[in-house]
Amino acid sequence: MEGGVREVQGQSYQPENKQVKYLRILLHGPVGAGKSSFINSVDSVLKGRAAGRALTNANYGSSFTKQYQTFEFHKSPGAKYSFVFNDIMGFEQDSDGGVPVEDVKLALRGHVKGGYTFNPDQELTEGDDGYNSDSTLEDKVHVLVCVVHADAVSRLSDEMVKKIRKVREAASELRIPQLAIITRIDEACPEVKKDTSNIYKSKYLKEKVERFRLLLALQMNCIFLVKNYNDEIESNDKVNATILCALKQIVLYGEDFLNDQ
After folding, report:
1. Contacts of 127 (CB under 8 A, 6+ apart)
2. Which of 25-39, 48-62, 150-164, 198-212 has the lowest mean pLDDT?
């Protein structure tokens, strides 16, 4: 497991583009999709034990994440992995709830300061305390990842799909690579709950991936099925495999983007 991490991030990995120290990955998507849980799951894989730095909540009525947060990952005292995740307030099903789409677009361009508290009723604008007017390449997003849970794929409202597509369009204009993660696959499919290695054998999950691909016009090889750490307290190789598969491609896509800058 540890060797798999090193193949991608490794003790010696640094972005080739010397303008940045860290590859910046932004997670976005509906409330309760598992964005914070994925961050904790990556942390758990890298530490080899359960981790919970990104706070989560089992109540999916509204977004538990309110601020623009950056998560770094430590590999040894005084040393960090060369990628960071940005967690963001989730989208809500109606047009007025959750993080404003325009705020997510600003985050893509590096204009949202760390710690900014999102306001569903008011978009961030230049001159506000949370607005970063001196955005550098390191502040900008290098990979955009949409996160949604499996059972929600078929229940995404037209308004939700519209919000996600708007963010995708903005990222495409900036040539930012985009991937997607479908979480809570064990809850959606009994066969996967029995054995996580059955992920890509599940017809039910394959249908979810295909539907999500059509909704967002994503390539199939850019959508990953992930079992987040939830009730596990010990490291699990099968769970790790789904997380590392997604993480590896996220990092590779981000590195390609930085090399083109």
Report:
1. none
2. 48-62
Distance CA 216, CA 111 (A): 25
Secondary structure of 1-20 as H, E, C letters: CHHHHHHHCCCCCCCCCCCC
Domains detected in the chain = 2-147+157-183+228-259 (3.40.50)
For residue 147, the tally of other CB atoms under 10 A from its CB is 24
Q: Distance of alpha carbon 61 from its chain centroid, rounded?
A: 20
Q: In the Cβ-directed half-sphere of 204, how many Cα atoms lie within 13 Å? A: 13
User: What is the percent of the chain with per-residue pLDDT over 90, rounded to a whole number?
Assistant: 64
pTM: 0.91
23 — alpha (psi -120 to 50), left (phi > 0) or beta? beta
Give the Cα separation of 254 and 130 in Å (integer). 25
